Structures are given as structure tokens and as C-alpha cells.
């Protein structure tokens, strides 16, 4: 398989390249380009079996590439901005990796591509419909269990969700903790994006749970939550910091 990586952050591009080679040494990364213009120029003269495409590039959004050159290869989009999910799938997207992602996420995306190719051609409209179904269902409440008691927690009572080992905890504003049978990744797309934000691999927080914020090095942000999680430092990851600041300022 030949791959083109379209990514304007050099470290992120090299990290992805190393992940791909580690997953399958036969994968050949033909080139790494960092702008819409460079990607268009490359695609006018070359072809790859698969494109990894960051949405935000130095000279614009990568969706502009599709307006300037025909893209016949499947695309795996990567970005810290999850509001672009649906648009990504409308542009040849077979998967969507939300930064920060790891090797297992990349492996899963490659497996998905392989399965699609084995069973049928890539059906972009069907993928769009599937994403629309996911995004169209915003969660308003959550079922939780307390012993044999079953109850619901309204979304506006949630302070944050915290992943810890194999469990995902729902923590309410009045300091109640519940284990919910979800994954943080699947839950993320079902929440009200105006009020909830995933700051790192462990936390999705509600805007009203933020008590104080402090600037750290490398553009990161330390957050004091209310209620305060025990023995856990809550920090917005470097990869999500810019998106987080835009979310605060919307």
C-alpha cells in the first residue's frame, strides 16, 4: 500500500509515518506535504492508495483540495476539531481519527479500509448517512445503576466524564459518581458540543464544571474542576489546546 500524508505539523507527520511502518513494513509513504497547494500539486502528478489528511493546514482547510483536483483514493482524516466529522465523510472519508490518536487507532482505521475493500467498493453516501445518524442523536440523559436501583441523570447535571482503566465514570455537579457502559470515544460524538468538550484521553468536561484555568508550557492548560477529581491532574492536551480555546470563546 502506498500512502500520502497531508499534515502541516512535522512531528505529527513523522509520528504517523513511523506508526504506519511499524504496523506494516510494506506500507510505503510516498510523500509528506503540509499545505493545500502542495497536496494539489502532488495529486496532479502522482497517485497513492490511501491518503491521511489533516483538516487544518497552513494555507486553509484540506477540503479545498477536493475542489481543485480529483481525489479517487480513500481518505482517513485526522484533526483535533471534531465538528468536521460529517464533512470529512462526504469527501471520500473512510474513517476519522481525532487527535491525539495512537497506533491502535491507526491500525483500526487500516483494518476498516481493508474490510470495506474486501466486501464492496467504498460507499461514501452510506458512510455519510451513518455519521448523520450518530451526530443527529444528542444525549439528553444517561441511565445509571446504584445497586439494584436504576435511575437517569440529566445531561445538564453532569460535571464531567472520566475514563479510568476499563471504566468510564459519570460525575455529577453534586459529586455523585456512576459507572456507565460507554466508551469515551463513542460518547463524545453524542454530547452537546456547545457544553461538553473532550480535553484529553481521559476527560470530557462540561463548561460549567470549570472552576479555574492556568496556562502551562507547550500551549497546555491546567483546569481545576468542580467537583475536584481525586489524585488526578486535569490538563488540556497540547494537541487539543487550540480547539479548546476556540470552544471557550464561541
TrEMBL record:
A Pfam family of this chain: LytTR
List of residues that carry 4-aspartylphosphate: 54
Gene source species: Pedobacter cryoconitis
Alphabetical keyword list: DNA-binding, Phosphoprotein
PROSITE patterns according to UniProt: HTH_LYTTR, RESPONSE_REGULATORY
Keyword match Phosphoprotein: yes
Origin organism lineage: Bacteria, Pseudomonadati, Bacteroidota, Sphingobacteriia, Sphingobacteriales
Matching PANTHER family: STAGE 0 SPORULATION PROTEIN A HOMOLOG, TRANSCRIPTIONAL REGULATOR-RELATED
Protein name: DNA-binding LytR/AlgR family response regulator
Domain Response regulatory: 2-114
SUPFAM superfamilies, per database record: CheY-like (SSF52172)
GO MF annotation, one: DNA binding
